[in-house]
Specification:
Shape: globular
CATH architecture of the largest domain: Alpha-Beta Complex
Structural class: alpha/beta
Number of strands: 10
Radius of gyration: 21 Å
CATH superfamily of the largest domain: Spore Coat Polysaccharide Biosynthesis Protein SpsA, Chain A
Oligomer: single chain
Length: 350
């Protein structure tokens, strides 16, 4: 397939103070075996050399342009602003975070699969996250999954093969038809957007590692995991979209199981002595979803954790020490971000 016959792919990078990694990110776009792309770097009022680096590349390749926000935007709003930059002529689009990068065959393999089946609206692949390959779980022979089934598998089996927004290719018309594309009230808006799309399209999967997600020590992504921002996000998915993919009985079972796990996590958090910022965050998320917060269930969760500690005291004590250390680091990070905006206590500030 020559460049003239290839459908156009718009790649967009929302960048904020990415001078350490931005050149590597841009170089990964330039190294693509697929050549029919345009690339927009949206700078979110960086205070470092990000704009200088991006501009240098734009001056040497006409397919690259640099746009700068007139004011600093919260993370999810900035991701939406970046997606609004995609070319009106593009058939596919790809969001690529400024500290991540793509392997050379990424666009080629993803577009090739998308072109095989018109029902495919999103294409994913394995990713290298730090030193670990993730987004596994689909049988190797499976390259096409109905949107309904991939969402059911996540709800019922916990199968999550999407990764971050860096790891997927979208059909551009789907992005244009949903504005804003990501729910700006949801810190996991990229996942929620997929559940919206999969009500009307299918998922394609390339069994090859095609993207790299950076995991730095004490990074905000690690904080996101420790603070369990994904737990209220999954509750939101179940309440807002579960009925579209699950039977009423399945939805009831999934909700009760998730709430049970949530309160077991709260029990651990009580024993860890999490601070008020942590509890306020989770209570606010539950209130937004009209789910009452039960102190008695928190206590039952703590008692269950204590029961495990009695049965296995050495292992439980060491785990508790590690979690307390992480909790102290995470609390400082969430306090810093919640002071900026209510939708920013998350893994990225780009």
């Amino acid at each position: 397939m020559n460049c003239n016959s290839q459908p156009l792919v718009s790649v967009v990078t929302p960048a904020y103070n990415e001078q350490k990694h931005l050149a590597e990110c841009i170089e990964s776009v330039l190294a693509q075996t697929y050549k029919n792309w345009d690339y927009t770097i949206l700078d979110n009022q960086s205070t470092d050399r990000s704009v200088e680096i991006a501009t240098r590349y734009a001056q040497s390749d006409s397919r690259i342009r640099v746009v700068r926000n007139s004011q600093h935007l919260p993370m999810i709003q900035n991701h939406n602003a970046a997606l609004r930059q995609i070319s009106p002529d593009s058939k596919y689009c790809k969001l690529l975070f400024g500290d991540d990068w793509m392997f050379p065959e990424c666009l080629q393999r993803m577009v090739s699969l998308a072109e095989e089946q018109a029902s495919i609206g999103v294409v994913g692949a394995y990713r290298l996250q730090g030193q670990q390959v993730t987004c596994t779980g689909l049988p190797y022979s499976t390259t096409l999954v109905s949107g309904r089934e991939i969402c059911r598998d996540q709800f019922l089996r916990g199968l999550y093969v999407f990764g971050s927004a860096t790891n997927v290719l979208y059909r551009a018309d789907l992005v244009r038809s949903h504005d804003p594309f990501y729910n700006e009230a949801n810190i996991h808006g990229d996942t929620e957007a997929l559940f919206v799309l999969f009500k009307a399209c299918d998922f394609g999967f390339v069994h090859q590692v095609l993207t790299y997600t950076r995991m730095e020590q004490d990074s905000q992504r690690t904080t996101s995991d420790d603070m369990a921002f994904n737990v209220p996000a999954k509750l939101r998915l179940l309440l807002h979209h579960g009925a579209d993919f699950l039977t009423p009985q399945e939805l009831t079972i999934c909700l009760e199981q998730h709430l049970s796990d949530y309160y077991r996590f709260f029990g651990k958090s009580l024993l860890l002595g999490r601070d008020r910022t942590f509890w306020d965050y989770h209570k606010e998320r539950m209130a937004e979803l009209n789910v009452p917060f039960s102190r008695s269930r928190v206590i039952r969760g703590a008692l269950a954790e204590l029961g495990d500690a009695i049965l296995n005291p050495k292992h439980s004590l060491e785990k508790l020490r590690r979690r307390r250390k992480l909790a102290r680091k995470a609390s400082g990070t969430i306090q810093a971000h919640t002071s900026k905006t209510s939708t920013e206590p998350v893994s990225r500030i780009a």
